[in-house]
Amino acid sequence: MNADVRLSVEQVSYAHSPNPSQAPIFTLEATSFQVRPGEIVAVLGPNASGKSTVLRLIAGALQPLSGRILLNGAETHLMEPRARAQKIAMVQQESQLLFPAKVWEFVLQGRHPHGKSLRFENSDDVTIATNALRQVGADHLSDRWMDEISGGEKQRVILARALAQQPVLLLLDEPTLHLDIGAQVDFLHTLKKLTAVNRYAVVIVTHELNLAGEYADQVVLMQKGKCLRVGTPASVYQRDLLEQVFQTRLTVEQRVNGRPKVSVLESSE
User: Fold this and answer.
1) Nearest to 215 by CA among 70, 47, 44, 52
2) What is the DSSP code (8-state) at residue 225?
């Protein structure tokens, strides 16, 4: 693997069937892309296109049917779970609270992969968690209860918990889904800055075409389990292709900064 590449997805396929004797109900065809340190790659596509399957394969939760996924040269699904958790952090749409917790307690959970069983967090863990909250601009929330903060604040705290793992790879599954547009932009601006500073490799699943077009370095466009195109947003955001994938009439313009802007055309009927 190229030394400049952090994550390499190489001709990965997958088939899901509820019963081994039955035909697969979903098939992911050969998919390939790479992510370098300091880079954000957005996986785009409509529902049931395979976005979340790709993310779970990268996380090592699923084993590829063929191909391989390498993180710093090691296949993710073969890594020991604790070692994998030390290198890969996941940010979900929602993070279920199993018990009431204050923000600082929630973020400290990110230190568990680095500790020994049945031990309490030490001062280094507390320092790392505190720094993670500061990095996402949420240190003022430290003593608040998790169920008392807003959606945008909660997503920042969930990101802080991921940063506290001190990973090399961040995986985000629709992290802005339930946020208003201001909170979406705020979250992705913070993510972009942290990715550049800390040299994370980032893969984000999203259906937000314009946010991905503005903040991603590369996009992976998917439809019905097929990887249709990989490249910069400007190269992938072609009107005919996007209309085919999303089954909607669109316009695509280039902003002054070279980033594409997608708009939905109103029906003439």
Assistant:
1) 44
2) T
* Tokens read off for 155: 């997503």
Output the CA torsion 116→118→124→127 (10° steps): 130
Rounded to the nearest 10 degrees, the angle between the axes of helix 181-198 and helix 151-164 is: 20
Residue 150 contacts by C-beta under 8 Å, 6 or more apart in sequence? 183
Tens digits of residue pLDDT in 150-198:
989 999 999 999 999 999 999 999 998 888 999 999 999 999 999 999 9
Give backbone dihedrals phi and psi of 5, rounded to 5 degrees, phi first: -100, 125
**pLDDT, greater one: 257 or 120:** 257
d(CA 219, CA 38): 15
Distance CA 71, CA 177 (A): 27
Tell me, what amino acid is at 229?
A: R
The pLDDT-based confidence of 98 (bands split at 50, 70, 90) is: low
Reading the block at residue 156, the tokens are 């920042």
Name which of 183, 182, 245, 180 is nearest 209 in CA terms: 245
pLDDT at 268: 46
**What is the pTM for the complete model shown?**
0.92
Using the Cα atoms of residue 215, residue 172, residue 78 and residue 231 in order, give the sign of their dihedral. Answer: negative
